[in-house]
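Case 244 in the screening queue. Each case pairs one protein sequence with one candidate compound; here the compound is NAP. For every case the pipeline is the same: read the inputs, emit a complex structure as tokens, and attach any notable structural observations.

Predict complex for case 244.
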Amino acid sequence: MSELSGRTTIVVGASRGIGHGIATAVAEAGAPVVAVSRTAAEFPESADITQELADAGEAAVPASLIDRHEPAAVIVVAGATPHMRPLQQHTWETFSAAWDTDVRITFHWLREALLTPLPPGSRVIVVSSGAALNGSPLSGGYAGAKATQRFVTGYAQGESKRAGLDITFTTVLPRFAPETGVGKPAVAAYAALAGMSVAEFLSHQGPLLTPKIAGESMVDLLRTDASDVADAYGLSGAGLKKLA
Ligand SMILES: NC(=O)c1ccc[n+]([C@@H]2O[C@H](COP(=O)([O-])OP(=O)(O)OC[C@H]3O[C@@H](n4cnc5c(N)ncnc54)[C@H](OP(=O)(O)O)[C@@H]3O)[C@@H](O)[C@H]2O)c1
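Case 244 output:
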């Protein structure tokens, strides 16, 4: 996929935050983009972006959108905003929110990518979280859910290989993007836990991720030859880094 023009890319969870940055960057790189979310968003007028308003966690949505748009790439970004609080202050509903949204959406979209299947040479990228590696003690079941997204993406890669489908599945694990829906409350909660201001806390986090950097990184990844694509990458303000 070194040349993206004509390679339709579905970005699931594109109305805000990291997904909005990815949809915009991929469209600016020349791919027709289908932006999926429950609410409408504004995109640059010059960008070739078709919006599809849908709940990406509904079982029938991936089949319908994949049939209609015949994508060469699907990027799954959508996720719930975790309730940031200590374990004992969670309810089961707040604890399990990322399972019912992030994991559910990943399950339905990857299942459909294999069942349809997407065409040979196509790409599927799932946005998990650095929390999958390190835990996230203030966000209930979030870290486990994000680790499950990585496992499920690996399972899908195995099924693709077994069936000779030539679809490349990859997981990306971002660090804090402090201005977006998931990142902002997380940064505030961890800064308070550390007894620091948000600015001081962020000064210890290294180069900070933005939706623009996430978008540019995804374009690089889509342009990387399939034979060089790793199973998983960390993502920070310094860009992508292959994970062992
Ligand atoms: N920000 C960070 O620091 C950070 C760090 C690590 C990982 N991540 C991961 O990166 C992803 C994006 O995070 P973010 O901070 O950019 O989030 P965000 O600003 O809250 O945006 C979330 C996006 O997901 C969409 N979405 C949620 N549920 C959906 C559903 N059922 N159907 C369709 N779309 C849905 C939302 O659109 P609608 O509400 O319009 O449907 C929105 O476009 C998440 O998976 C998050 O876990 C973020």
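Case 244 observations:
- Residues 13-19, 36-39, 55-57, 77-79, 81, 101-102, 127, 129-130, 174, 176-177, 180-183, 186 surround NAP (CB under 6 Å).
- The chain has nine helices and eight strands.
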